[in-house]
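User: I'll paste a sequence; please echo it back and then give the predicted structure.

Assistant: Echoing your sequence first, then the prediction.
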Amino acid sequence: QVQLQESGPGLVNPSQTLSLTCTVSGGPITNNGYYWTWFRQPPGKGLEWIGYIAYSGSTRYSPSLESRTLISRDTSKNQFTLQLSSVTPEDTAVYYCARYGRWKYDYWGQGTQVTVSS
Protein backbone atom coordinates (compact mmCIF):
# COMPACT_ATOMS: atom_id res chain seq x y z
CA GLN A 1 0.00 0.00 0.00
CA VAL A 2 1.46 3.33 -1.07
CA GLN A 3 1.20 6.19 1.39
CA LEU A 4 2.14 9.85 1.01
CA GLN A 5 2.60 12.32 3.84
CA GLU A 6 3.19 16.06 3.53
CA SER A 7 5.29 17.93 6.06
CA GLY A 8 6.56 21.46 6.48
CA PRO A 9 5.90 24.78 8.17
CA GLY A 10 2.31 25.85 8.54
CA LEU A 11 3.17 29.55 8.52
CA VAL A 12 5.45 31.36 6.07
CA ASN A 13 6.31 35.05 5.95
CA PRO A 14 5.55 36.99 2.79
CA SER A 15 8.43 37.16 0.30
CA GLN A 16 10.00 34.03 1.80
CA THR A 17 10.21 30.54 0.30
CA LEU A 18 7.61 27.91 1.10
CA SER A 19 9.15 24.46 1.40
CA LEU A 20 7.17 21.24 1.76
CA THR A 21 8.26 17.60 1.71
CA CYS A 22 6.24 14.58 0.69
CA THR A 23 7.46 11.32 2.20
CA VAL A 24 6.45 8.22 0.26
CA SER A 25 6.18 4.71 1.65
CA GLY A 26 5.19 1.47 -0.02
CA GLY A 27 7.37 1.79 -3.09
CA PRO A 28 10.30 3.77 -4.50
CA ILE A 29 9.61 7.07 -6.23
CA THR A 30 11.91 5.88 -9.02
CA ASN A 31 9.46 3.15 -10.07
CA ASN A 32 8.88 3.41 -13.79
CA GLY A 33 5.78 5.23 -14.97
CA TYR A 34 4.88 7.33 -11.96
CA TYR A 35 4.70 11.10 -11.60
CA TRP A 36 4.93 12.64 -8.15
CA THR A 37 2.76 15.69 -8.10
CA TRP A 38 1.95 18.75 -6.02
CA PHE A 39 -1.48 20.42 -5.88
CA ARG A 40 -2.95 23.16 -3.76
CA GLN A 41 -6.40 24.40 -2.87
CA PRO A 42 -6.78 28.02 -1.72
CA PRO A 43 -9.69 28.79 0.59
CA GLY A 44 -12.96 28.84 -1.31
CA LYS A 45 -11.32 27.83 -4.60
CA GLY A 46 -10.74 24.70 -6.62
CA LEU A 47 -7.78 22.38 -6.77
CA GLU A 48 -4.76 23.80 -8.60
CA TRP A 49 -2.04 21.68 -10.21
CA ILE A 50 1.44 22.96 -9.34
CA GLY A 51 3.76 20.47 -11.03
CA TYR A 52 5.45 17.11 -10.85
CA ILE A 53 8.73 15.28 -10.73
CA ALA A 54 8.71 12.09 -12.76
CA TYR A 55 10.21 8.71 -11.94
CA SER A 56 13.07 9.70 -14.23
CA GLY A 57 13.73 12.94 -12.35
CA SER A 58 12.34 15.22 -15.03
CA THR A 59 10.03 18.02 -13.92
CA ARG A 60 7.13 20.01 -15.29
CA TYR A 61 5.42 23.02 -13.76
CA SER A 62 2.25 25.04 -14.11
CA PRO A 63 3.02 28.00 -16.41
CA SER A 64 1.46 30.40 -13.92
CA LEU A 65 3.80 29.25 -11.13
CA GLU A 66 6.85 28.06 -13.07
CA SER A 67 9.02 31.10 -12.37
CA ARG A 68 8.68 30.55 -8.61
CA THR A 69 8.56 26.74 -8.39
CA LEU A 70 11.15 24.05 -7.88
CA ILE A 71 10.31 20.38 -7.33
CA SER A 72 13.18 18.11 -6.38
CA ARG A 73 13.68 14.71 -4.82
CA ASP A 74 15.85 12.73 -2.44
CA THR A 75 15.73 9.15 -3.60
CA SER A 76 17.70 7.94 -0.57
CA LYS A 77 14.85 9.14 1.66
CA ASN A 78 12.09 8.41 -0.86
CA GLN A 79 10.92 12.01 -0.64
CA PHE A 80 10.11 14.79 -3.04
CA THR A 81 10.02 18.45 -2.17
CA LEU A 82 8.19 21.58 -3.28
CA GLN A 83 9.80 24.99 -3.03
CA LEU A 84 7.72 28.05 -3.91
CA SER A 85 9.60 31.33 -3.70
CA SER A 86 8.49 34.92 -3.14
CA VAL A 87 5.22 33.88 -1.56
CA THR A 88 2.31 36.24 -0.96
CA PRO A 89 -0.94 35.77 0.98
CA GLU A 90 -2.44 34.48 -2.29
CA ASP A 91 -0.29 31.38 -1.85
CA THR A 92 -2.20 30.47 1.30
CA ALA A 93 -3.74 27.06 0.65
CA VAL A 94 -3.95 23.43 1.61
CA TYR A 95 -1.10 21.73 -0.23
CA TYR A 96 -1.34 18.10 -1.35
CA CYS A 97 1.07 15.61 -2.83
CA ALA A 98 -0.17 12.81 -5.03
CA ARG A 99 0.98 10.00 -7.29
CA TYR A 100 -0.08 9.87 -10.94
CA GLY A 101 0.18 6.63 -12.80
CA ARG A 102 -1.84 4.46 -15.17
CA TRP A 103 -3.96 7.45 -16.22
CA LYS A 104 -5.10 8.51 -12.77
CA TYR A 105 -4.08 10.05 -9.49
CA ASP A 106 -4.29 6.97 -7.34
CA TYR A 107 -2.73 7.98 -4.03
CA TRP A 108 -2.90 11.27 -2.15
CA GLY A 109 -1.49 12.74 0.99
CA GLN A 110 -3.88 14.10 3.58
CA GLY A 111 -2.91 17.69 2.82
CA THR A 112 -1.21 20.34 4.88
CA GLN A 113 -2.36 23.90 5.53
CA VAL A 114 0.13 26.65 4.68
CA THR A 115 -0.65 30.23 5.61
CA VAL A 116 1.37 33.15 4.27
CA SER A 117 1.25 35.97 6.76
CA SER A 118 3.50 38.23 8.75
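The chain has a mean pLDDT of 97. The radius of gyration is 13 Å.
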